[in-house]
Amino acid sequence: MANSKYEYVRQFELADNLLPSTWLVVRIDGRGFHRFSQSHQFEKPNDRRSIDLMNRCAIEVMKDIKDIILAYGQSDEYSFVLPKSTNLYSRRASKISSTIVSLFASNFVMHWSTYFKEDKLQYAPCFDSRTICYPNDQVLKDYLSWRQADCHINNLYNTTFWTLVKSGMTETEAEARLRGTFSKDKNEILFSEFNINYNNIDPIYRKGSTIIRQKTQVTSVSPRTGEQVKRIKLLPTAIHEDIIGQQFWMEHPELLEK
């Protein structure tokens, strides 16, 4: 549209560049995923197929957008962290947010059948997104701690709730039973009534999924010689560890050096 008389419409585009030298986090959330999970008959309290699919989508996003250094996901949400030094799309919020959420959603559809097999996708999933600036390392760590704490709180409640329902209670009765209870009360219900030690539940459910780039040996075929060649590459990999304490950050100091 160079030198076109219509080019004046560009004046209506508002600048939305994010603050320089700040951490950027793009958080995506499933829109209407309660209905989506019911329509597709997700297992309760957790559907491993859905979690693995969400992780796959996040890994594919990180493969495409190299600036992302870490992602954290639980339930129907994922947070993608870009370093203070990033200049991706000139730090334009709308470009960054829309690109990441659209990549995630398209991969969700593309890889659905890999994880759900013969269970067909009934309708298109939808995700919303937002981009937030965090001013320093501590605030970023607190943000990620908040999301993992949320994962624990929600999973403990859902595990107890659906254990009660599967034992014969109605959903209304289970909700009433848990109303006003604390974490220790839910742990006691699980252990004393159902012999379930919550701490023994798979960490992928209790701690969510953290994706970082780890050194991984990959094998490829040399186009010149036809021989197999082994190389070490940094590939996005899902781990399920505590990220609230200092141990994780001590083991991965490179994450905060970007």
Automatic annotation (TrEMBL):
The organism's place on the tree of life at top rank: Eukaryota
Enzyme class: transferase
Signal peptide: none
Record domain tRNAHis guanylyltransferase catalytic: where: 6-135
Residues the entry annotates as binding Mg(2+) 1: D29, G30, D76
Ranges of residues in domain Thg1 C-terminal: 139-229
Transmembrane segments: none
Catalytic activity annotation: a 5'-end ribonucleotide-tRNA(His) + GTP + ATP + H2O = a 5'-end phospho-guanosine-ribonucleotide-tRNA(His) + AMP + 2 diphosphate + H(+)
Cofactor: Mg(2+)
A Pfam family of this chain: Thg1
Residues noted as binding Mg(2+) 2 in the record, renumbered to the chain: D29, D76
Family: Belongs to the tRNA(His) guanylyltransferase family.
Name this protein carries in UniProt: tRNA(His) guanylyltransferase
